[in-house]
Amino acid sequence: MKIGRNCAWMMLCAFIILLWSPAAVRAETLDIKAESYVLMDADSGQVLLAHNEHERMAPASMTKLMTLILAAQDLEAGKASLTDIVVTSENAWKMGGSQIYLEPGEKMSLEEMLIAIAVGSANDACVAVAEHLEGSHEAFVERMNQTAQEMGLKNTHFVNSYGLSAEGHYTSSYDMAVIARHALQYPKILEYCAIKEYDLRNGEFKLWNTNKLLWWFQGTDGFKTGWTNEAKYCLAATVKRDGLRLIAVVMASPEPRGHFSDSMVLFNYGFAKHAYKSFFEKGNVCGTVKVGKGVVDSIEVVAAADVGTICLKGEEKSLSYSQVLPDYIDAPILKGQKIGEIQIYKDQLLIKQVDLVAAQDVPQAGAVKEILKLLQGVFLIR
Predict the structure, then answer these.
(1) Residue 174 has pLDDT above 60, yes or no
(2) Active site includes 64?
(3) Residue of 36, 89, 98, 121 marked catalytic
(4) 87 CB contacts (<8 Å, ≥6 apart)?
(5) Helix (H) or strand (E) holding 345
(6) What pLDDT score was predicted for residue 5?
(7) Among residues 179, 159, 178, which one has the least CA distance to residue 170?
(8) pLDDT tens figures, 354-380
(9) What is the pLDDT of residues 201-219, one digit of tens each?
């Protein structure tokens, strides 16, 4: 009995410590009215704060972030071009909700359609783009769901590309944060989502970005707002300050502009508690490696991505890094080829790895070149 009481007491103490741990701040300590939310580190995907993050809810126009991702994928793969002319169908013309009032047969570049989606939250542009990329809106939505599965989303299903409420159309704040994290892979999405105002149709139609954090909160450069009667006020946003990029998603905030105030509370918490420790930026030269059988004797290696990590403020000194590189590598070598890696440690524990890649191509040397190098080595020895 005494052992049992001791165990129970130890478990209670551990639970109390967990409650007071900075990494386990409970929802009620922050003034957030949204029914569901997530604060995520964009670099690692670590959840810093969350409440009801896996609950399935209506996403409203935050849906459009997945629409933009699919378009960005096609642009990157060369399946589409920003200069493509998108022709408006009657199906797109019939759309309600937020729109740019496309007319049947109206033509617009794919780039302007995407800007209309990102800035003006245009439902009709979503349908037009979906039909242009996949032939039909239905086929596009099917691809949205396939992409959601590839992302590992367990609480997301789309019925349309624009976000009007429909049976079976849902996501969670956590899943939406993962979608937002994927969106960061495509610079054009951030570029378009950061546009505050845009003149469409040669200035005849003015677009104003629905994400007011672009004006109100320093470092904001994305993404999408959302509102319907069912979804209430929603926002998926990202902010970058001093190297640290955070993602916040709030869903079902009950008051007008509540999605903005809730998001600012989350971001203020995140930036007050956390910092980003940077060692190298993407593309920085991190070392050299000797080259065998090549036209040069050595090659520079560069970071394939930013080398750094999030940490609690005050814990920066606990972070360190080491390089793992071979003594030499034989040519031929291709630019971007992985040569080694940088490992980041926190208190000697490996927490992150970043590839080190070749900064240039190194062709294989011909036989004459190799003989000359060999003779040069012989004479140097003498």
Answers:
(1) yes
(2) yes
(3) 121
(4) 105, 106, 107, 128, 132
(5) strand 338-346
(6) 45
(7) 159
(8) 999 999 999 998 755 556 555 565 555
(9) 988 899 999 999 999 999 9
Residue 38, beta-bridge partner list: 50, 249
Does residue 332 have a cis peptide bond before it, meaning omega lies within 30 degrees of 0?
yes
Q: pLDDT tens digits, residue range 130-167?
A: 999 999 999 999 999 999 999 999 999 999 999 999 99
Q: Which CATH number is 26-273 given?
A: 3.40.710.10
Coil/strand/helix, residue 43: coil
Pick the catalytic residue: 61, 89, 98, 172? 61
Alpha helices (H) in 42-136, listed in sequence order: 64-77, 90-93, 110-120, 123-134
Q: How far is the C-alpha of 10 from the C-alpha of 12, rounded, in Å?
A: 5
CATH code: domain 281-381 is 2.60.410.10
Task: Tell me if the pTM is above 0.70.
Answer: yes
Angle between helices 137-150 and 123-134 (to 10 degrees): 90
Contact 340, 324 (CB under 8 A): yes
Q: How far apart are CA 86 and CA 74, in angstroms?
A: 14
Task: Specify whether 61 is catalytic.
Answer: yes
What burial letters (b/e) apply to 134-159, b meaning 16+ CB within 10 Å? beebeebbebbeebbeebebebbbbb
Tokens 């000359």 — which residue?
372
Residue 20 has pLDDT above 90, yes or no: no
User: Cβ–Cβ contacts within 10 Å for residue 325, how many?
Assistant: 17
DSSP labels for 259-277?
Answer: HHHHHHHHHHHHHHHEEEE
Q: Where in the chain is the domain with CATH 3.40.710.10?
A: 26-273
Q: Any catalytic annotation for residue 121?
A: yes
Do 85 and 131 touch, CB atoms closer than 8 A?
no
CB atoms within 10 A of CB 187: 9
pLDDT at 270: 96
The residue written with tokens 């409650």 in the block is 19
* Inter-residue contact 247 to 226 (CB < 8 Å): no
Task: Please pick, among 64, 224, 277, 352, the residue that the annotation labels catalytic.
Answer: 64
In which residue ranges of the chain is CATH 2.60.410.10 found?
281-381
Please give the angle made by the CA atoms of 69, 50 and 162, to the nearest 5 degrees: 30
